[in-house]
Amino acid sequence: MAAFTPIFAVIGPTASGKSALALDVAIRAGAEILSVDSMQVYRQMNVGTAKPTPAEQARTKHHLIDIVDPNERFAVSRFVDLATEVIRDAQRRGVPLVAAGGTPMYFKSLFEGIFEGPGADADLRARLATETNELLHERLTRVDPVSASRIHTNDTRRIIRALEVFELTGKAISSLQTDWSTGRTRFDVLWVGLNWDRDALNVRINARAKRMLAEGWLEEARGLRERFGALSPTAQEAAGYRFLFDHLDGRISLDDAVEQIKISTRQLARAQMKWFRRFQNVSWLAGDGNFAENAARSVELWRRPDKG
Fold first, then answer.
1. Interatomic CA distance for residues 162 and 95, integer angstroms
2. Which of 17-32 are b and which e, b meaning 16 or more Cβ less than 10 Å from the residue's Cβ?
3. What is the mean predicted confidence (pLDDT) over 55-69?
4. For residues 31 and 25, is the Cβ–Cβ distance under 8 A?
5. Which of 32, 69, 66, 70 is nearest to 51 (CA)?
6. What contacts 24+ positions apart, CB below 8 Å, involve 195-198?
7. Which domain, by its residues, includes 148?
8. pLDDT (0 to 100) of residue 116
9. What is the pLDDT of residue 181?
10. Cα gap 136→189, rounded to integer Å
11. Does residue 210 share a domain with residue 132?
12. Same domain, yes or no, for 110 and 171?
C-alpha cells in the first residue's frame, strides 16, 4: 500500500480510453476503482454510458456504478458523500484506489469541496418560472452555451439556477464552476490525464456512437422508456439518450438521432477538456500513444509520485 498511497486519478474527455487505462493500472497495483462518472451511477444505462462490462468489473472491484434507478435524481453532494465513504473504507482496509471518470465537477467537488455559488433569489426564480422551458433554454444558450449544451430543455430547476447565477453575478455558472478553487485538498491524489488531438478524438467519438448503436443502445433506450417512463432530470443529461427518445417518439429519424449524438458528444468532450485543462499538477499522456507504455508510465508515477 505504501507505494500506492495517493489516490490515482485518471481524467480525460469522453471516448479517450480512461476506463481501459484505469482498469489496467488497478490490476497492476492491486487496486480498486472508484467511478467518478455522473451517468454510470444509473442502473440499466449501460451501453450509452460506456459502462465497464460485467467481465471488466469482475477483474477488480468497482465502486459507485449501478447505485440508483434512472428515474431518481442524483446530485453531486450525494456523490461526494458516497465517494468519501468509499475512500475512507479503502484507507481502513489498506487498499489503493484508482478514481476514473469524465465528470470534472465530481472530481473538483470530491477533492476540493462543493461549489456553492450565490444564494437563491426567490423573486428572481419566481419571475423566471413564469416563462416556458424553451424560452429559458434559448436565453441560457445565449449567455452560457456551455451549460445549455449539457442541461436538457426539460430540466427547469437547473436552467433557472444557471440563469439565476448569471443574473446575480454577471458570469456564466459554467465559468464559475470551472474557475472555483478552495486552495485545499481533501485527499492526497495523483493526477494523470489522457490528451488527444481534437480531430483524432472526434473520429473516435463518431466511431463509438456507431458501435454503441450496433451493441444495442437503441434497444436499451426503448427498454428504459418502457420500464421507467421519463428519466430523472439528472439522468436526462446523459449524452445521446434524449435523441434516441426523440427518434422513438417519431420526432426525428434514426440517422438524424445518430448525427445529433455525435455532435453533442463532441461538444461534451470539448467542455470536459476545458475543465480538465484547469486542473493542477496533471501528468498528461498521449491518448493515441502506446497503451502498454502509458500503463507502465502510470504505474511508475503512482509508485513514486514525488518523481512525476
1. 39
2. bbbbbbbbbbeebebb
3. 97
4. yes
5. 66
6. 195/12, 195/284, 195/285, 195/286, 195/287, 196/12, 196/13, 196/16, 196/287, 196/288, 197/288, 198/270
7. 122-177
8. 63
9. 60
10. 39
11. no
12. no
Same domain, 281 and 136: no
Residue with cell 453575478: 169
- The confidence band for 168, taking pLDDT boundaries of 50, 70 and 90, is confident
Same domain for 61 and 126, yes or no, is: no
**Residues 16 and 288: beta-carbon distance below 8 Å:** no
Helix (H, G, I), strand (E, B) or coil at 49: coil
Could you tell me if 23 and 56 are in contact, meaning their C-beta atoms sit under 8 angstroms apart?
yes
Per-residue burial over 142-164, b = 16 or more CB atoms within 10 Å of its CB, e = otherwise: ebbebbbbbbbbebbebbbbbbb
Cell of 259: 448525427
Q: Read off the pLDDT band of 179 (50, 70, 90).
A: low
Read off the pLDDT of residues 293-308 as tens digits, 9 standing for 90 and up. 999 999 999 998 765 4
* Helical axes 76-93 vs 104-112, angle rounded to 10°: 60
Task: Give per-residue pLDDT as tens, 11-54.
Answer: 999 999 999 999 999 999 999 999 999 999 999 999 999 999 99
> Do 308 and 190 touch, CB atoms closer than 8 A?
yes
72 three-state secondary structure: coil
